[in-house]
Amino acid sequence: MTFTEMLLAAQRRNGSLLCVGLDPEPARFPGALRGDAGRIYDFCARIVDATADLAIAFKPQIAYFAAHRAEAQLERLMEHLRRTAPQVPVILDAKRGDIGSTAEQYAREAFERYGADAVTLSPFMGWDSVQPYLKYEGKGAFLLCRTSNPGGDDLQNQRLSSVPGEPLLYEHVARLAQGPWNLNGQLGLVVGATYPQEIERVRQVAPTVPLLIPGVGAQGGDASATVRAGWRQDGPIVVNSSRAILYASPGDDFVAAARRVASATRETLAAALPE
After folding, report:
1. What percent of the chain has pLDDT over 70?
2. For residue 156, what are the contacts with CB-CB under 8 A and spacing of at least 6?
3. Which residue blocks in 111-253 are alpha helix, DSSP H?
4. d(CA 202, CA 144)
5. In sequence order, what are the residues at sequence separation of 6 or more whose Cβ sits closer than 8 angstroms to the Cβ of residue 35?
6. Distance between CA 174 and CA 209 in Å, rounded?
7. Does the N terminus or the C terminus of the chain have fewer Cβ atoms within 10 A?
8. What's the pLDDT band for 121 if we cut at 50, 70, 90?
């Protein structure tokens, strides 16, 4: 099964476009967990158990674990995900981007150490920095394309005068992901929910690749506009929400609150799908 097929199967099974981001901040943990970096696994595992039937994917952000020396907890969490929710793909949000020999080690980290189904990458260093990840059959790689942060304009929205048609940089990345770089159908693109018109433009350029779309929820992206701009029947979208779900309540009811917000977000996304 290809990674795209895995996403489409999860979408059908759970009736969902929602990706639950796992960005654990111990200072924001509820109740007795607050401030305890040793409880990162416990917090995330409870969120996973509460939302696994509502999600198309989970997306742990590696920096939130590494900053607290919690890589071993991330390994435990990945094992928990594979054991309790094997039908839900896991995207390791690492945003790696380095030369080929180093990329080989990062690919081993993502796919062998952590057992992720996909990873996020920066394409800035070119094809040879992406290729090592595609040696893993059935695994996916999402290239940063048009990100949700305001500073994305500094590079992504600039024209390339040396490329025929003078595309914007993000348009060029989308073309590469749809075409010459996507040898085995393993590539996807990261596009921010804060720019729905540009999601639509990416879809024009790359009609079938999966889109990972952060920015819904705490970052203010419009869920309905995101779906209308990015959804295609043969090109899945994975709409991420992290903080709005994780920190839906500061109290002991945080698990139930996370499920309520995840369920409501899933329904909002589903309602925006065409008839």
Report:
1. 98
2. 145, 146, 147, 168, 169, 170, 173
3. 127-130, 153-156, 169-178, 196-205, 223-230, 243-246
4. 12
5. 26, 27, 29
6. 9
7. C
8. very high
Q: In what order do the strands lie in the sheet with 187-191?
A: 57-60, 18-22, 237-241, 211-213, 187-191, 140-146, 118-121, 91-96
The secondary structure of 8-35 as a DSSP string is HHHHHHHT--EEEEE---GGG--GGGTT
Select from 140, 146, 109, 143 the least CA-distant residue to 129: 143
**Structure tokens that stand for 1 in this block:** 């099964």
Per-residue CA distances from 237 to 10, 30, 42, 174 (Å): 11, 31, 29, 15
Catalytic residue among 59, 95, 135, 139: 95
Residue predicted with more confidence, 220 or 156: 156
Q: What Rg do the C-alpha atoms of the chain give, in angstroms?
A: 18
Q: Measured between alpha carbons, how far is 237 from 231 in angstroms, rounded to an integer?
A: 6
User: Model confidence over 159-192: pLDDT tens digits?
Assistant: 999 999 999 999 999 999 999 999 889 999 999 9
Q: What is the largest CA-CA distance in the chain?
A: 58
Average pLDDT over the chain, rounded to an integer = 94
Known active-site residue 139? no
Whether the CB-CB separation of 186 and 140 falls below 8 Å is answered with yes
Distance of CA 93 to the CA centre of its chain: 6
C-alpha 225: how far from its chain's center? 18
> What are 254's two structure tokens?
């945080």
